[in-house]
Amino acid sequence: MRVSYNWLKEYIDFNLTPEELAELLTQAGLEVDVIEYPGKGLEDIVIGEIKEITKHPNADKLSVTRVDVGNEELEIVCGAKNIFEGAKVPVAKIGVTLPNGMKIGKVKLRGVASNGMICSEDELGLKEERQAGVMIIDKDCKPGDSFVKIMGLDDAILVLDLTPNYAHCLSMIGVAREVAARIGKPLKKPEIKINETGPLVTELAAVEIKDPDLCPRYTARVIRGVKVGESPEWLKQRLLAAGMRPINNIVDVTNYVLMEMGQPLHAFDYDKVKDHKIIVRRAEDEEKIVTLDEKERQLDSNVLVICDSKEPICIAGVMGGANSEVTEETTTVLLESAYFNPISIRKTARRYGISSEASYRFERGVDIEAVIDASNRAAQLIQELAGGEIATGIIDIYPKPVKLLEIRLRTHRVNEILGTQLTRDEIAEMLNRLGFTTKVVDDDLDVTIPTYRGDVVREVDLIEEVARLYGYDNIPGQLPVGESRVGKLTRSQLLEDQTREFMNAVGFNETQNFSFINPKVYDMINLNPDHEWRNSIKLKNPISEEYAVMRRTLISDLLKVVSFNVKRRMDKIQIFELARVYIPTDDLLPYEPRMLAGAVMGVLENDQWNQNAGGFFYLKGILDAYANKFGLGELIYEKAQHDSFHPGRTALIKAKGEEIGYLGEIHPDVLANYDLKDRVTVFELNFEKIVELSSAERRFTELPKYPALTRDIALLVDEGVSVQSIKEVIRTTGAEYLESVELFDLYHGEQVPQGKKSVAFAMVYRAKDRTLTDEEVNAIIDQLLTRLKDELGAEIRG
Asked: Residue 456 is part of which domain span?
């Protein structure tokens, strides 16, 4: 952002030097990179008027001129062909040093004395390329006047490096508002008066917005009978100071208002807009437009365009189309002033490699409530500089007006954070100077945020505004409010670290993935259309479609990592992740529980069970060991169904009666979606539940003094009876003596009836205070078999 020192003075009275102004702005958070002085090195250049031109007696290509420089007339030899008598030119007298380092002295050129130099623009440092002739000054001036003042170069340009949260300062009025607040002077906004004498604008034009999400507001004015031509010198000088190239009076006015008010505008040639209708819509695939830079652009549905009834005439907020450009033949102008979605503009500008003053501001967010003021200001200036008749009224399509945000600001909170002793009224006075509206509520303030301050959304943002205006240098250095304590890990943090250590110790590698995923991932993991995980938090400004929503599960990322490694010829994989997922709530913020998930592939446990179990029992053993280590008790595994898992190879996991997650083999369709051929087994646990249920308490168990008695039983049960339910009956029968129960055989075969299975358990019984007798244990077994038959239909297998 280039801020003209002289231009800024039109909006606020101040006596600061450019250096003092730069310091003030920097203290307010508007960092000044550099101060440029356009007239530096040109202070001694004066205006001269050529009174007489004669041919050089000794050189055909040279002329001898007599130049009036105010207090004297100088004889200067000149080789330029564009001079003429009466021309006003910049003159460097003897002793003057030009910006290029040339020092002017009295010299003889082919025998004729030259007492100075008539300068070209490149010799003055105003243009880089060499000019064919001297600079001719077409301004109202007289000989001897200061060249710098006449050309408007007696200025200082403050180049600001603004961070995105200072979008409200991307205009002269925005910067002036900051200065006014700092020095306590009133802001002088330009008086806007327009003379609407033409027919109703709705009789001349129409506007339709087909995508209000990308264009929440669009306004249009029509000005007839304009005369397009060169802008006046003051306007051209303002634009040059701002780093913009003057084009014609219509376009220059729109650029002037952009720099003055921060609202980009666009002027269409009304007669080139077919049916005089503006349609704001997404482009269609394969549509094309030739933009003002004479480049053909390929469009698609991700690009917002301004169209007439036939075709696109502008890439919204980025660049206009050549087919609706204002030229010298234009007599009627359709003036656009709108608000476009910042994300849409940013993506479009980056896609086409276009960075304009307009797109730069739209990307950061303009003031949606200022679009009409900017349109009126432009209409006023166009009528003053190009004539014409302003149509009555303005077309304003604004389907969902913005509601002003109100934030409660607590006085004590301001002072706690800043370490100050400011009163409520002092805080209110500072915020009022910045344009906020305050209302007293006891000792606090309800602050209404103006629409041009889109960066202020929380109480702490208001506290930052107070700090900026109060002055960071004025904030006393002191210790934070409160008691200093020695920090230590919470139980939850400690368990998190211990969990990572455990998983590493059992051979797992930790992965870390983005919290953002592509919503198409939910299709890849086979979720039903109505699955709750599909209700994910959408990002307003995603990096790309690959990171458009916040994840509800870690499973998809683990499968992505497995697939990545398999493609790099890894055949044995053990990975885990401990991270947060994000669940939408009715509150402002989502619920963000931590989850613990792991995946294995190609890891086969070396025990008596099926070697092709795909890692199910291997992971089950690890989870049981984890539960034992961290005091979760014995985990219960119940048969379950899950969209992402293989039916019949999925278990719901419970700890202390509460569900904590799933263990299962990934569904073959899901494996195919990730280009995986081998079986993958995954678990996912709610780590917040683990923290809640785990116990650090460890009980000492002395070595047994008395011998144990063992019993084995083989049962024939229905296929649907779970091992867990049998174990539960065993545990609750003779519980005071039961030391352990273990499944050691599971059989389906010819000797087992259809729909049945054979299961065998080994039980260990022991008393703490004596030796158990066979009779006592046999009585427990008899009671057990009766219960198993009555409750589960189990029969003893002979």
From this structure: 405-474
